[in-house]
Prior knowledge:
The complex is a heterodimer of chains A (192) and B (936).
Chain A: H1 9-18, H2 20-26, E1 30-31, E2 42-46, E3 49-53, E4 60-64, E5 74-77, E6 84-89, E7 104-108, E8 122-123, E9 128-129, E10 138-140, E11 146-149, E12 158-163, E13 168-175, H3 186-191
Antiparallel strand pairs in A: 1-2, 2-3, 4-13, 5-6, 6-7, 8-9, 9-10, 10-11, 12-13
Chain B: E1 15-20, E2 29-36, E3 70-74, E4 80-87, E5 124-127, E6 130-133, H1 136-154, E7 159-163, H2 169-183, E8 188-190, H3 201-206, H4 215-220, E9 223-227, H5 231-234, H6 236-242, E10 250-253, H7 259-266, E11 271-273, H8 280-294, H9 299-305, H10 309-314, H11 318-323, E12 324-325, H12 327-336, H13 342-349, H14 353-364, E13 375-379, H15 381-384, H16 388-401, E14 411-414, E15 436-437, E16 440-441, H17 446-451, E17 457-461, E18 471-472, E19 475-476, H18 495-503, H19 511-528, H20 534-546, E20 551-558, E21 564-567, H21 575-582, E22 586-589, H22 598-612, E23 623-631, H23 637-644, H24 647-655, H25 660-670, H26 686-710, H27 727-744, H28 753-756, H29 776-782, E24 811-812, H30 819-827, H31 854-864
Helix pairs in contact in B: 8-13, 8-14, 8-16, 18-19, 23-26, 25-26, 26-27
The structure holds iron/sulfur cluster (SF4) and FE2/S2 (inorganic) cluster (FES).
Amino acid sequence: MAELQTVDRRSFLKISGLATGVVLSGGAVVAAVIGPRPLGVAAARQGEKVQFAFPEYPDVIIANLNDLVAGEPVFFAYPQAGQKNMLVKLGKSAEEGIGPESDVVAFSTACSHMGAPLDNVYNHEYGILGPCPLHYSTFDLSKSGMNVMGKASDHLPQVALQVDDSGDIRAVGMFGLVYGYPANLFARAKEG
Amino acid sequence: MATRDFIPLPPADAEVKTMSCQYCIVGCGYKSYVWPASGPNGTPDAAGNALGADYPVGPLAGQWIAPSMYNVIRRADGNDYNVALVPDRECVVNKGNHSPRGGSNAQGIWSPYGPTYDRLQFPLIKLAGAQQPISWDAAIEIMAETIGYAKEQYGGPAMAIRFYAYQYYENTYPITKFYFGDIGTPNGAIHNRASMGGETTALSDIGLETWGTAYEDGLEAQTVVAWGANLYECQDVYFAEHIVPAAAPMVVVDPRKTFTAAYAETAVAGVHLQLVPGTDVVLAGAIARHILDRGWEDRAFIDANTASADDIAQEEAWRRKKWAATFDDYRAYVERMDAYTLENAARITGVPAEKIERATELIAMPNDDGTPRKTLLTFEKGATWSINYETIGSLGNLALLTGSTGQPGRGITRAGGHQEGYAGGADYPLDLATDTFEGNKIPNYIDQHMADGEVKIYHVIGANPLGMTNLSLRHHIGRYDLNTGLNYNRRWPDLFAAIRSQLAGRLSDDERFNVNLIRKTVAEWIDAQSPRTAAEQWRLLVLKEAHDAEFVLDLHCDDDALLHIFTSPELMPELQDLADWMGAAATLTAADSGGGSFDEVLPQLYRKLALANPGKPVPMASAAATLEYRGEADTFDHLGADDARRPDGDRRDADDGEPALERLERQRRRHRLRALRGREPDRQPRRHLGDRLRLLLRQLVRGLRRRGRRGRQPLGQGVGHRRDRGLLDVAAASAASAASAASAAGRRHAGSDGADRADGDRRTDVAHPALDGLDRQRRRRALPRLPLVDRGADDHVHRDDAGRPLVRHVVLGLRPGRGRGRERLRAHRPVRPHGLLLGLEGEVRALAGARTSPQRRRLRVEAAAGRDQEPAQPPPHAPARQRGRLAQPPHMVRRRPLPSPPVRKRASAPSSRPLSLPRTISTSSSSSSTLSRRMP
Ligand code: SF4
Ligand code: FES
């Protein structure tokens, strides 16, 4: 199997804490090795924000910031065909949110419990996705897809986004494993 | 959880074991896959991995390995291994489904790379002030020597044991065999009890099983009751797989609006009875009375299965002998109880009468063809940790009234908590016990025997009597809400801001009027809130109780502190009375200490209102204080005893011979004093706090007589004056007026609405109309002995002078050992795949399959009757010895569509259609063993 790049966010923060000196002084790239096998991530600090880099993932333009209406989701496939995600402007700031209000986020719409499609259950009032039509799991989109009620034992996978000056929003990576897959970059896993 | 974006797959030749989830009673099946971390890993095609899955898999496949299901362990060979603990799609319990707990099974096992890395690997012994690792052999030798010596020197009772009743039979069997059998000590208790008492004693007295139903009953029931149980979040997979698919209406009894409650109201045609905590008995009584009024009881069942006067006369078990009643007695009693009329019950429980009526219909209204409605009664901690005996007894009575036991789709059962696996190697030696209740031997309360010095060795196995279970991820949760991490005792609402506009221009020149108006407005404001979190809701519930109280005392202990109190400056120096009485080292006052803690909510309101309305009299009408009872480590019995016997607190009462605490309890019941319990880290023995609280309240009530002599003082005027007009007297004044109103009407609960509510000690005190008319001696007998500590359920019952429970839910007895009902009762034990069925014979053998169609049920009943059908393969979790004798489950089960998800409130509501996903499972091929629960 090809070696895939991933990081545990919390572990990363710990490590980045240790390596703060390096990051701050040179905007250098931190490479982390956690656990029994190499889990890598590249990250750099841009201004106040730590910028994650997912070298293996495609870099795809999915929408333009100026076209987004708060509460109206946009659907797209990422990182590969068949892996459906939802981009939404929450109207309140969110973890890993982008845009001037840090409120634009994107998540997989396959429930991380047993895979039911969550396309139709976005609730704008609370900024949640759910209850899931199958077993009612509910995910908080402003808190990195945390399961706030229900059955899932993992967060809803979140798409890492970047925005450039023209307002183009690009999907550049993924936190978490999409339901049904052994690896997000599945074709690579299959090759391996 | 980790945010990995890939999981290695187990190769086709990975080690595979079938196990049961380590967490809850539902007992979901899991498969554990173990293979070397160095690989090779499996491939995503069906032939290339141990799950036989072709990745990616679709919804409900039960073959996806979520990141939480994966971990790396190191075995004794020094090598690392990948582990995947995946819900078992072939298990009849969960069919691949899982809860957030079960889905994280792999996170709880030992891994050198995760948060579990620091688990103990060797026994430790404390030598020279520090914990030192020693070998197992040495540890065993030391234990054997010490226990042997203690037994020789002092006898069996010198050993006390507290042990778990979960995990493996292999553990509970030798523990009980050794201590109850060989050593012979009566000083033993299960992890969560004070003695070796039952958790549902009333049910066994009635003759019902604690676990009296099969999972399949959930799909056959026409109504499912969840009493003090939150099935969606606590028995996840039982609910999701065995209740939701049938979409039966639910009756949910819970003071909180849980998700299960929302489900009952919005997803199925059910009802949520949002009762005042502690009023369960009245609610159940009202339902029983309504059933009897309508003639909806199951007469055939009652006639065939409940005890006659002759049966009762022959009864030998003391509790049954004492409390059993015939159906006619029971009916007469229920009909006599005023508290059980719809209107009174609605007032007491806070549940609208229409909802009680609706619930009664759902529970007991017979079907159109005259057959009884199939009702499945489930209950859990909200009921069992309430007024245990009476509540469970009244639920058991409901079960008998409606014939809900031992029949398809009908039954009563605990919903359950952690998984249970108790196999006794020896019975509890009751003959050696020295504790008694009214001359009857009861299991020893072990803490007391330790305090008395009888116990020399306390062997604690898999339990934590000091820390109890308030730790989560190694942190004390205490007053921090688990979901939000927020401190429950901060951010209480600013009532002034909340009600200022409603009050504008309405305050008068009459102080009393103003106070009433303010309280009313606060109550209205509380009622108008729709809390969004459980913590918010609890705050509102507590505020509702507190808003019209003259006194609000919040009992705490600090990390490390002397005894002190916190209060508002306006309440000094009167509160110094209380501080002196407590022996407080310091009294701290602050108008606003910041953060919005509970004891400041009401004083702030009155203070701010007084400032904002300079011309109007607004007194400080709530005397609120936080009493800090030292530090967490100060848990010595002598401190507790001292606090409970403050030198000037008790003397007078000691003279008249009535035990002080009994008297206090009586007074507390009589007046509007309600105690609410919160929970900090539970290091204080409960007795300690309970005694203190009672005595404090008692002290307050004592002023009542003095106050009564002096006449009523307008609220707030005592502030700043003489000590004897202080705070305690003001409390007493209000209590006195309530009390005199009550006795004028000749009954205890004729006073204000609040007096009718059960107190926060969760003992229902509304049902004792005769109390006031009795003389002291009789009253003493009516309240024989206060249950300061939980002692099983044995002495939790308050009795009248004829010795019957005061809330006299006469417990109906099933005729022991007679009739089909009793046999079939056993046939409806729940399926517990980790092997509780072992050793049971007869019809039970057919029950390992949790899910049957009517056709299979018929087969099963026939099989039970000795006409075995053709041998078939057992469901995956049947014990090996039962195989070959089971009715055949169908190979294909098609799911019924699920009801749509309940939604409380939704602004932009995209309609959520119920999903109807066809799903095929096979239950025919498995070779699992019920006892292979061990982690890899
Ligand atoms: S419902 Fe209970 S047994 Fe089933 S997976 Fe969850 S914790 Fe485990
Ligand atoms: S698939 Fe979403 S909760 Fe089960």
